[in-house]
Amino acid sequence: MDEDSRIPLNTPAKDDKFMFLTGEDAGIAVPGVLLPHWMHNEGNYISSLSQVVRWLGEHAEELGVEIYPGFSASEVVYHEGSDAVKGIATRDVGLNKDGTPKETFMRGMELHGKQVLFGEGCRGSCSEAVMDKYDLREGKDPQVYGIGVKEVWEVDDPENHPTFSPGYIQHTAGWPMDTDTYGGSFLYHMEPNMVLLGFVVGLDYKNPYLSPYEEFQRWKHHPEVSKHLEDASPVAYGARCINEGGLQSIPKLTFPGGALIGCSAGFLNVPKIKGTHTAMKSGMVAAENVYAALCDAQEEAPWEVEDGSLYGLEATGYQSGMEASWVWDELHECRNVKPAFEKGLLVGTIAAGIISKVTKGKEPFTLSHSHVDSETTASKTQYKPIDYPKPDGKLSFDILSNLQRSGTNHEDQPAHLRVKPEHAETVKANKSLKEFDGPEQRFCPAKVYEYNQDGDEPELVINAQNCVHCKCCSIKMPYEYIDWTVPEGGGGPAYTVM
User: Fold this and answer.
1) Is there a contact between 400 and 447 (Cβ–Cβ < 8 Å)?
2) H or E segment to which residue 200 belongs
3) What percent of the chain has pLDDT over 70?
């Protein structure tokens, strides 16, 4: 295989560093021997998932796989007279903002399959619809989430930079977060000259005035972070929610006609803050068991059977296959870490150390998540507004300036963020603003939500064109009043190195 066709994994992980930041200019380096083993990265690679996915797509097409990157799946299609999944329907394209058709209008199309595997990522809209229809969360803990905000910087002269070293990895906990809020950071040096850095905040936080984006911007000014950004420039920005429920929040994986894979199911290793490896493994296990189910008790190849007999099958072997895999073992070991952090930073840190070094996941109990994140925001009367520093335009930036680096584009089209009809009066009455001082103005990393104060009564304004598809508003919004639907295919952020 020539060099240009190799998978883009060019930066082996080398130096691991973990720091507990005690203040805006102070911190303590934690010796590697004290760190949980899941914080070690020997044998891993630092890469851009955008680049890896493009590489995979090219090779998949060479094998005959059809990929439709310009279309978005807007709804699940079911067999008539049956509850089995038949496929998905793509969204109509070529509509004006008011919903009327343009000259370029094209009706969405249905894509059918004998088995439909949903791998939409965290909080996928079709995946959520399937979970509701088949009650796949019955007997499971509610899923909880975090929001990750990320930037990519390019170092001007990597060979002479005082800190740039491809393979370097740094994580931090502590400042600027308070001890009651789950969060932390990551920073990677990647060939040839890139610094990838970001901040994750658990969405079960209480303070309605907290802004994950502003915490991220403030964090970059810490000297243990800013030194990596000297003589460098930001080139990309993005945000995405991640699953933080762990093993106890994974739903039943199969249903008639399909299955959930990857982060649609929630296979992220929470303390490791990594889920690509588990997502890929779930896809492999699903493929093996779906094929086995379709081939069972027949001689013909599945793609040659067109009499309908293979539709609606449930590949139950996928569930047992995952439970017997190393993915389940890995998630079982760390299942109690995130729930322990819900008791505060001190309790969580002690628990993580004990689990990693002593019990190794063999605790005779499993801690539960008892809430959904939209329920944890406290009243505005319990907190004071946070006075975040103004961005300096060098290390820190306002949201709209950074948004330009995401490549976000929603060309003239109907808004994909809609108020649920049953909550129309809730929004009209400004309950979120009156009770929580409108936290949607602060948790959204793209400034989608704001309140117009010019009239007699404040009015919610939804700037859907700014949306970076992080899904945070469908999770953290008071009363969960937003229905996150897919925009036209191709709309949204255009990540190239994220």
Assistant:
1) yes
2) strand 194-202
3) 99
Dmax over CA atoms of the chain, in Å, equals 72
68-142+247-359 falls under which CATH superfamily?
FAD/NAD(P)-binding domain (3.50.50.60)
**Pairing relation of β-strands 449-452 and 459-462?**
antiparallel
- Over residues 11-15, the mean pLDDT reads 95
3-state SS, 35-96, equals CCHHHCCCCCEECCHHHHHHHHHHHHHHCCCCCCCCCCEEEEEECCCCCCEEEEEECCEEEC
Nearest to 256 by CA among 305, 293, 302, 307: 293
Give the span between the Cα atoms of 378 and 375, in whole angstroms.
Answer: 8
DSSP helix/strand/coil, 160: helix
What are 115-174's pLDDT values in tens digits? Answer: 999 999 999 999 999 999 999 999 999 999 999 999 999 999 999 999 999 999 999 999
Collapsing DSSP to helix, strand or coil, 286 comes out as helix
Q: What is the pLDDT of residues 222-266, one digit of tens each?
A: 999 999 999 999 999 999 999 999 999 999 999 999 999 999 999
* Token digits of residue 410: 């929603």
- Are 100 and 460 in contact by the 8 Å Cβ rule? The answer is no
Q: For strands 258-260 and 254-255, give the pairing.
A: antiparallel
Burial of 12 from C-beta contacts in 10 A (0-12 / 13-18 / 19+): middle
How far separated are the first and last CA of the chain, in Å rounded? Answer: 26
Q: Considering only CA atoms, which of 265, 272, 270, 282 is closest in space to residue 123? A: 265
* Cα gap 465→412, rounded to integer Å: 9
56: amino acid identity, one letter: L
| pTM of the shown model | 0.94
**Number of helices (H) and strands (E), helices first, in the chain?**
14, 21
User: CB of 443 within 8 A of CB of 399?
Assistant: no
What one-letter code names the amino acid at 471?
K
Domain ranges of the chain: 68-142+247-359
Q: Please list the residues that pair with 274 across neighbouring strands.
A: 269
**Percent helix, strand, coil in the chain (nearest 5)?**
30, 25, 45
Q: What stretch of H or E contains 106?
A: strand 101-106
Question: Which tokens go with 300?
Answer: 């013909």
Q: What angle do CA 69, 73, 77 make, to 5 degrees?
A: 140
List Cβ neighbours of 14 (8 Å cut-off, separation of 6 or more).
165, 166, 167, 168, 169
